[in-house]
Amino acid sequence: MFGYIVRRVLYAIPILIGVNLITFTLFFIVNTPDDMARMQLGAKRVTPEAIEKWKAERGYDLPLVWNSMEESLFDKASKTVFTQKSAKLFIFDFGYSEDKRDIGSEIKARMWPSLALAVPVFLVGLAVCITFALLMAFFRASYLDVWGVVLCVAMMSVSTLFYIIGGQYIASKIWHLVPISGYAGGLDAARFLILPVLIGVVGGIGASSRWYRTLFLEEMGKDYVRTARAKGLAESAVLFRHVLKNAMIPILTGVVVVIPTLFLGSLLMESFFGIPGLGSYTIDAIQAQDFSVVRSMVFIGSVFYIVGLILTDISYTVVDPRIRLE
User: Fold this and answer.
1) For residues 322 and 246, is the Cβ–Cβ distance under 8 A?
2) Residue 208 vs residues 142, 194, 258: alpha-carbon distances, Å
3) Are 264 and 282 in contact (CB under 8 A)?
4) Pairing with 167, which of 3, 132, 201, 312 sits 20 to 30 Å away (CA)?
5) Where are the chain's structural domains?
6) Does 255 have pLDDT greater than 90?
7) Helix boundaries (H) for 25-102
8) Which fold, 103-319?
């Protein structure tokens, strides 16, 4: 197990390097520092002196990957935009945003509101979707199954924006049950999070429940299920003790996609409900053309995704002892 984890971590290093290089290429070669300066200064005819001043204030006046003006080999490689802006991401040194705020401190502060929203949506949504899918599989070919599938398809066809706007209009504007937007620390955060959590759960029921139902029905048609039934096991025991356990591997594979969003937040939810999390932080950075923040969020997202893949592979051995990682 330990050797497997070490190998996966080592495999992740070239992936992160590749992500970093692609990000660097997009932000500094395709979109040059001169282009960044013109967008930030907001003028069609900006003077070359203003561009050079903007670049010097932010360290973009250095050569991109190789500083031929320096004498020592170390300075030639280190005093570059790549080393100062991209390579430091590997030690989680994110630098400063365009408004001179420390990006690392902002991420630490905004991570908790994102988790406060994403974790309940993830856990409650997973429990609700699996339970609903098990009910449809248990009563397959019945009215509950047929109308459950119809409901899932209908919910899949509705945009998340509809749930957000409709929920804000009904629950906040008409019924005045919860605030329409905003956030507060401590226990007061609950009244601001009830509506977005509910909308997040409802918005994911359609697609997730239909997919889980397909997994359960596929498992229920296998030989080991027929054998369990032939031995006299009750249908509920077959469903919960055998089908659910053997369907956990594809479920875990799907769950790993959601893991990065637990830390990075929900872009739409946080923006519409005014929650100061990492999702709204990313949206604000894109709108303000704050490339330092965007680069940092892209890198963090790739790190969390790779960690999620490793944790998923390890969890396979828990739900299925036949799998050996070594």
Assistant:
1) no
2) 20, 21, 12
3) yes
4) 132
5) 2-91, 103-319
6) no
7) 33-41, 48-58, 73-78, 81
8) MetI-like fold (1.10.3720)
The predicted model scores a pTM of: 0.85
Whole-angstrom Cα distance, residue 242 to residue 237? 7
Read out DSSP for 43-61? -SS--HHHHHHHHHHHTTT
Tally of CA atoms within 13 A in the half-sphere of 166 that contains its CB: 11
Look up residue 29 and give its two tokens. 């070669």
Whole-number Cα distances in Å, 95 to 85, 242, 244: 8, 51, 46
Residues sharing a CB contact under 8 Å with residue 226, sequence separation 6 or more, in sequence order: none
159's torsion region: left (phi>0), alpha (psi -120 to 50) or beta? beta
Burial code of 126-153, b = ≥16 C-beta within 10 A, e = fewer? bebbbebbbbbbbeeeeeebeebeebbe
Give the CA distances from residue 213 to residues 139, 223, 229, in Å, rounded to whole numbers and listed in that order: 11, 18, 20
CA distance 136 to 212: 10
Q: What is the pLDDT of residues 197-244, one digit of tens each?
A: 999 999 999 999 999 999 999 998 889 888 888 888 888 888 888 888
Q: Which amino acid type is present at position 274?
A: G
Torsion of CA 109, 114, 117, 122, to 10 degrees: -140
